[in-house]
């Protein structure tokens, strides 16, 4: 346990609120590769420095989604109707020109069973039910069918507004892309019910090469051979979302964790990393592990990542790959602060702990869903300051702080720095398919 002479200071909910307010209201949208994200990285770096950490920023290339206009119209009941839409990151715009084609409905969860997609989808605007394509092979077949465009419907929560999202960078780079627009579930429902026959869209802007950054804060330990405990979160957001919960909650949390942990004696180094470009699929954390692979193998002991932890109503979930002994240790820390979590086992490749797992380091992500589909304001403009409870966040973060402080001081870690044998194959498969491997 932590040395009783130096009690761990508590996380301050008012400081969390102040950081969240700066991130969501002073800065606002923090899209990868654009000025809002860079402003967030600079803010986090300054705050880490004030906490007493040694701070570096590591840049990496990213395709910024730089869109100034987007319009969609759908034909039903004898007329064209305007609809909300949001261009997926990593998919092209139309240089402002209208693209019009017949509309077809494609049920993503079962549609790929059809042997030949070309005759059905070629030249059409495809309403794609489901906005995450399950495998690169399915995405390759979809693009090879040469649709005129995709209207992607998120199935996780049947909302009335278009969400923002991305085609995974590795998918777009290896298979190509067509203009892909997220549309609201309830609008798609209406088009199907009314028998919509055509759609047309135009987009000014699209992807362009840019730079993002990871912000790394070191709280050095006294024994360089004792290894490194990583804490992570991401400071970028989706388009048109100020991302208070996703992931201002963890960004503010990392700043407070740095402040309270800096006061503690440490044998092991604690390294807090605020990642850029998570929302396109962990571009920042995968860049980090590629750059530091040898060091992670030598020094990495575990990564505890935080992503969207502040929902007023909801429940805590811990996902990721860790040895049994680490899983046995964690519940007591959270129970002590009235924040029990549900552990969901199995490989989860969709958060920033995963690249660490691919590098062989135990990696976990704490999240807080509020409905069976995830979070009802996920990737939407209304993920604002009103959505998060800073006292609840402080309680969870106190648990993380105590865990990290203890793991940084114990003479011998009570778990091995290895992922379960049973998960190796699935981890390697996800790393290859979704991230393009090493
Ligand atoms: Zn997130």
Give the % helix. Answer: 25-40%
Based on secondary structure, the structural category is: alpha/beta
Quote the CATH topology of the largest domain. Answer: Aminopeptidase
Count of the separate structural domains = 2
The whole-number mean of residue pLDDT values reads 96
> Strand count, sense and closure of the main sheet?
14 strands, mixed
Distance between the termini: 38 Å
Helix and strand run? HHEEEEHHEHEHEHEEHEHHEEHEHEHH
**Strand portion:** 25-35%
C-alpha Rg (nearest Å): 22 Å
Low-confidence stretches: none
The CATH architecture classification of the largest domain is: 3-Layer(aba) Sandwich
Draw up the topology in text.
Layout: H1 13-27, H2 35-50, E1 54-76, E2 79-83, E3 86-87, E4 99-107, H3 108-111, H4 118-121, E5 125-129, H5 136-144, E6 149-153, H6 169-175, E7 180-183, H7 185-193, E8 198-219, E9 228-234, H8 244-261, E10 269-275, H9 283-291, H10 293-299, E11 300-306, E12 316-321, H11 324-336, E13 341-344, H12 354-358, E14 363-367, H13 390-409, H14 424-435
Parallel strand pairs: 4-5, 5-6, 6-7, 9-10, 9-11, 11-14, 12-13
Antiparallel strand pairs: 1-2, 1-8, 3-7, 4-8, 8-10, 12-14
